Amino acid sequence: MSILRGNAIVAQSGGPTAVINASACGVIQEAMKHKAIGKVFAAHNGILGVLEDTIFDLGAEDRRAIEGLKVSPASALGSCRHKLKRKEDFERILEVFKKHNIRYFFYIGGNDSMDTADKVNNLAAETGWEMVAMGVPKTIDNDLAETDHCPGYGSVIKYLATMTMEAGRDTEAMYTTDTVNIIEAMGRNAGWIAAGTALAKRNEEDAPHMILLPETPFDNDRFLSGVQEWIKRIGRCVVVVSEGVKNPDKSYLSEMKGAFGRDSFGHAQLGGAAQFLQSAVEAQIGVKARFAMPSTIQRTGIHFASLTDSREAYLAGCTAVRLALKGENGKMVTLIRADTKRYRCITGTAPLAAVANGEKPFPREWIGSDGFSVTDDFIAYALPLIQGEVKPRMKNGLPEFVRFKKNYV
Amino acid sequence: MSILRGNAIVAQSGGPTAVINASACGVIQEAMKHKAIGKVFAAHNGILGVLEDTIFDLGAEDRRAIEGLKVSPASALGSCRHKLKRKEDFERILEVFKKHNIRYFFYIGGNDSMDTADKVNNLAAETGWEMVAMGVPKTIDNDLAETDHCPGYGSVIKYLATMTMEAGRDTEAMYTTDTVNIIEAMGRNAGWIAAGTALAKRNEEDAPHMILLPETPFDNDRFLSGVQEWIKRIGRCVVVVSEGVKNPDKSYLSEMKGAFGRDSFGHAQLGGAAQFLQSAVEAQIGVKARFAMPSTIQRTGIHFASLTDSREAYLAGCTAVRLALKGENGKMVTLIRADTKRYRCITGTAPLAAVANGEKPFPREWIGSDGFSVTDDFIAYALPLIQGEVKPRMKNGLPEFVRFKKNYV
Fold first, then answer.
1. Residue B40 pairs with which residues in a beta bridge?
2. What span, in angstroms and rounded, lies between the C-alpha atoms of B176 and B198?
């Protein structure tokens, strides 16, 4: 087998995470080690940057900035939610790849991104442009098929569980006036993130007292009586609600209406579940409730991100490059929990198409019998993913993040 | 002067902070050093705990738990928002003090708490119960009179500025779909907290791009054209809005109505300013906007609290005890910025009544001429307050907080 020679491009897609830049760092640093790879480019704003030919040379960036990706949140290369639909778009991608002699395409993202990478790669094969496309998994939602867990997930649950602990102590102090607190978790239609806040609970008194998952249809009476029971037992109740919780008729608890109610993939934009429940508690139980909506803050918390997650994100990026140079193609790197007593994460691969078309729902058997808790099996699954803390670079009391110069080629 | 001998009580009041427990720790550890003080009690839930005689003996608590107050957020003694109004309530307080031979009363709180402490103390003097009442300042809002700054403030702005940096990078990555992000800051009618997020901005590209303070009446046209200018300049806009921003007619931008719209002091409960602005941006500019409402999460972030703030909170607690034993009475400990080139914080005192009846508005001269920024003088004021990080005790990847056994006496 002769090694394919040419330039490489890396791009990031979809919602940012605390550690997606660690994956980019892995791709970039590994790619720069190999002679078969000439230049290492970045597409600004994911696939949009390829379409628009806004591509910059990572070789022109400071090596310290590249290393700093490990401690910088969100997508330093820029991201997008852009679904390629027209055949001309895919042809345009290949045209740009040819222009810059791009033979290696590393796409860091979720299932929509894997779909895009797969389709570009297939068109390249059909039309005779020799190239390799490899995917690097990324999503806070943890719902990608074929991988034990997703880079980004460990950090979001570590941070959101910490927020829940801290805000939980606030409610514990203030329960005589602010009796109920409702925190809204991201995660779309999968309960992985909301479930992860259960890590905050070390004994009965600790928050969260109730977790509402999208996998359990909302039942107003059961919710309210659950809250009332907690108030009776310990004087307060902290609830974590997933943004994707649905009514029995499959409508979202509180769906955002209007022109911006759907993203370009047609997914409903969610928000307001916590506020909805706050009103329900105040009106129907008659105690004061607060709510918090950390929104994108939860997914970019590098200042308290999981070191395990960050290292695995970096590993996934490096591995994608190494495998590409060993002849793998059309695959996403997966994370595998090695069958060892102590947690150990190794890598594998899955076809891009399998990830694109699959999903990994939160297992029903990990939902507690009351419908508002998770089982010990879930805790055993999640706990290793939040170990250790990323230490950001600090300057004048605040973190310091990198930003690329972006010399467009 | 003969030293007053008897027991001491410490209580916490009002909204929690990341470091109010550090002040309690200072009071408790210092009080336990002095022979004139017999037992050191805590009132559970502030003055309510005195009224209801739910008082526990801190001497029965593990010394490691007391030390752990320094790294535990919110009010470990319990807090309340309870305004004493009736003369019988004040008499009841003294009755409970007499029952437990309480001669030293240390109240950690804001101006309402200083008012309570002052009134209890005055009634004691009138009725011949010899005692000392000392106040320890606490408020994230930083609006207490007589003190340069308030314990709790440095931590809330360090954390909220970090959130703004991180969420700002999210918007920077996603601006092609999520162009505007609006983060709601606490702070009631004072802009101190929202202003503090300006520390996140190191250059033009950095968030926050606009800060809306309660001191500047809201002007819809100026706001929208400001956002549009930023979008034109850098493609995005991150806004920090204070919950207390008001319309020119003095009504809040978005006031919570209904039965729980006011707390027991009659203060309006605020919320929803960010959501209001999100709707305005989407409807009137036609780009997608997100909003975040970290709510109580922002004030309890011990995992990234300011070490400077924590140490000053502890110092204020210790100092209250030391001064009480030196014969001071009816005073609140204040923080003074020593007239030195490098930041140095020393303590002073102010009469409880002066704090109770005063306030410290955000200085108008520290608001930028555009109405959406702050001046370098404010930055110079705030920057020393956020230096260093508190390191929480960690257990299994998450912080570990203390909780007292509470042996009621």
1. B8
2. 24
Contact B199 A259 (CB under 8 A): no
Do residues A186 and A298 make contact, with C-beta atoms less than 8 angstroms apart? yes
Q: Where are the beta strands (DSSP E) in B338-399?
A: 345-351, 394-395, 398-399
Residue B162 phi, psi (nearest 5): -65, -45
ipTM confidence score: 0.96
DSSP conformation letters of B290-308? EEEB-GGGGGG-GGG-BHH
Q: Are B194 and B215 in contact (CB under 8 A)?
A: no
The pLDDT confidence band at residue B41, using thresholds 50, 70 and 90, is very high
Whether residues A290 and B302 touch (CB distance < 8 A) is answered with: no
Strand pairing report for B6-12 and B102-109? parallel
A218-276 pLDDT, tens per residue? 999 999 999 999 999 999 999 999 999 999 999 888 764 444 455 555 555 555 899 88
For B177, the closest of A200, A263, A388 (CB atoms) is: A263
pLDDT tens-digit map of A26-49: 999 999 999 999 999 999 999 999
Between A147-161, B167-181, B202-216, B257-271, the lowest mean confidence (pLDDT) is in: B257-271
B294, closest residue in chain A (CA to CA): A294
Question: Model pTM greater than 0.90?
Answer: yes
Give the list of residues 6+ apart from residue B237 with CB closer than 8 angstroms, or none. B171, B179, B180, B181, B209, B210, B226, B227, B230, B231
Angstroms from B188 CA to nearest CA on chain A? 15
Q: Which domains does chain A have, with CATH numbers?
A: 6-140+303-357+389-399 (3.40.50.450), 153-299 (3.40.50.460)
